[in-house]
Amino acid sequence: MEVNQIEEPVRKKNKIKKLLSKITKRQVNTVVVILMLLCFFWLGFERGKQVNQVSSVPIKLDEVVFKNEIGRVDNTVDFALFWSVWGLLKDKYVDSAQLDARKLLYGAIRGMMQATGDPYTTFFDPEENKKFNEEISGNFEGIGAELGVKNGILTVIAPLQGTPADQAGLRAGDKIIKIDGKAAGDMSIEDAVSQIRGPKDTAVVLTIFREGSKDTQEISITRNIINVKSVKLTFKGDNIAEIEITKFGDDTESGFSQAIAKVSASQAKGLIIDLRNNPGGYLDAAVTIASKLLPKGKIVVIEEDASKKQDKLYTRGGDLASELETVVLINEGSASASEILAGALKENRTNVTLIGKKSFGKGSVQEFIKTAQGTAAKITVAHWLTPNGNQINELGIKPDLEVELTNDDYLKNRDPQMDAALKNLQEKIGK
Questions:
Q1: Which end of the chain is more exposed for a tag (fewer CB within 10 A), N or C?
Q2: Residue ranges of the domains in the chain?
Q3: Is 146 a catalytic residue?
Q4: Shared fold status for 139-227 and 231-429
Q5: Which pLDDT belongs to residue 72?
Q6: Bridge-partner residues for 222, per DSSP?
Q7: Which of 247, 292, 357, 362 is catalytic?
Q8: What's the pLDDT score for residue 25?
Q9: What kind of fold does domain 231-429 have according to CATH?
């Protein structure tokens, strides 16, 4: 039994030797090649699984590694792909001779900004940069309306008072569906503004949907030179002053300083700050105005960045009106710096009443950065919080007293919100 157990492996070993002796060198090479192909196939299959697993995972900007190499995965963004597609356009596009390399570059940067999903993070080419600076200064040709994105829809934040948009009947909250027949759904704010703006005496047709309406409607607006003074002072009888602020631009600080000085020198006991249809503007202007309406050292707004670090901006002094009974009028068109001012007054003073409708809810901070070749970038860098730490973005500022301004009121030139403001102040200060 033991002998047989030993001889059996020996016989098997001899058989294997005979078989190997019959295998030619060519056959050996063939087997090696097959094994190598199987190995490469397996490696490719595993690599393919890795690509499928990683491709759906976002790559964080602070972790990315840039390489001009084909075939890298993990945290690598392969810029060779960009140049590969660039080359395809150059070599294969039917009208490649008409392509402008600078426009392709600007388009790529603009697409990168749009990919953030934030409608207020944008890129300006030299012409757009020039127009943006003209617009914020208050002198440009167009219709005079501020646009934003709300719930993913291009929306009128506010038509500026006395402008073609205002005169044609465009209103805060109108949803823009088409611009001259082109669907506005896929347009960025900058694209929409570019389509709407144009030379004086030319017309643009906006297809809009208004809350409460069953169908869309078309509004034709003839463009004009837009030059809007941002501050207007009116006295409502002997003891109530109204200061209307239509935007926070270059002339707002000086205009408000002059207006509030006149109010302080008058016999006024009550003050109305009208921020309705004010789409915002410069943050610094809002802080300066708050400094005229609040004691020194009060928080105007809190900037909170991505790391939740908070930077508090305070009033600088120069208070002239914090003792006056005050009503602040807001509506759906009050946005950005308007919401900051309304929130600061409401949360720092007990003698302030907010009347109207809930504000737009644009509480994000954009930093405007000049970049090369006359271009610029506007990037959302933080969110705004009220002095008590309440979020503004998407939520807006709620009035203490909600008062509707209906379509019928609008058509018959009635203003129940202003009426409510006057009544509120008269009850507090006496007639």
A1: N
A2: 59-92, 139-227, 231-429
A3: no
A4: no
A5: 52
A6: 203
A7: 362
A8: 54
A9: 2-enoyl-CoA Hydratase; Chain A, domain 1 (3.90.226)
Question: What is the tens place of the pLDDT at every residue in 300-310?
Answer: 999 999 899 99
Q: In whole angstroms, what is the distance from residue 20 CA to residue 46 CA?
A: 34
Cα 341 to chain centroid distance, Å, stands at 20
Cα distances from 61 to residues 51, 320, 332, in angstroms, run: 19, 48, 36
Residues 81, 82, 87, 88: what is their CA dihedral angle, to the nearest 10 degrees?
A: 70
Tell me the pLDDT tens digit for each residue of 225-269.
887 789 999 999 889 999 999 989 888 999 999 999 999 999 899
Spans of the chain below 50 pLDDT = 1-7, 9-10, 16, 19-20, 31, 33, 37, 40, 48-55
Find the catalytic residue in 188, 291, 336, 338. 336
Cα distances (Å, whole numbers) of residue 408 to 219, 404, 405, 416, 423? 18, 11, 8, 11, 21
| Residue 213 annotated among the catalytic residues of the structure | no
Task: Give Cα 175 to chain centroid, integer Å.
Answer: 16
Torsion (CA) 395, 337, 267, 418 in degrees, nearest 10: -50
Three-state helix/strand/coil letters over 182-238? EECCCCCHHHHHHHHCCCCCCEEEEEEECCCCCCCEEEEEECEEEECCCEEEEECCC
139-227 folds as Pdz3 Domain (2.30.42)
Beta strand 65-67 with 76-78 is parallel
Two tokens at 41? Answer: 């196939």
pLDDT at 55: 47
Instruction: Decide if 362 is catalytic.
Output: yes
Tokens of 45: 């299959």
- Give residue 302's region: left, alpha or beta (phi > 0; psi -120 to 50): beta
